[in-house]
Design goal:
139 residues, three-stranded antiparallel sheet, alpha+beta, 3 helices, PH-domain like, 2 domains, single chain
Length: 139
């Protein structure tokens, strides 16, 4: 969905919530109205958060000599390049049960965290794919 479409969804939700709360207000239940307003505010904030992160991406390119990582987050772009021969993929377990595993790629003590939006299983699969891609000779 585009940001405009998300805005339309929030407006439709607001119209429905206000219509329902106004009907309760007509019956004398005035306390419903402020809570409907809070509900619309919460939905609008959640949609704004989703729209803000919708354009984030990571791109990993493995070439003959280099591994290049491009990370675009909230309007800023960072590019990291490593020599392919020395580049390693590491999986770093979180300190506790609630801290997720981190997937790191880099060399010579300089590592970049990648795949922060992925599940733990998807991170493991990506680690295998990257390790395989860096071991194989490119045609």
């Amino acid at each position: 969905m585009t940001p405009r479409d998300m805005g339309v969804v929030v407006i439709c939700f607001a119209v429905v919530a206000v219509t329902i709360s106004l009907s309760f207000l007509a019956l004398g239940f005035w306390l419903i109205l402020p809570f409907a307003g809070l509900e619309v505010l919460a939905v609008a904030m959640a949609v704004a958060f989703a729209v803000r992160g919708a354009s984030d991406y990571e791109s990993i390119t493995v070439t003959e000599d280099t591994v290049e990582i491009v990370q675009h987050r909230r309007g800023t772009t960072e590019t990291h390049a490593f020599q392919r021969y020395w580049t390693r993929v590491r999986q770093q377990q979180g300190a506790g049960r609630l801290q997720p595993m981190r997937l790191l790629i880099g060399s010579h003590g300089r590592y970049v965290a990648i795949g922060s939006a992925l599940t733990e299983e998807a991170k493991k699969q990506l680690a295998r794919q990257l390790s395989d891609a860096m071991r194989r000779p490119l045609a």
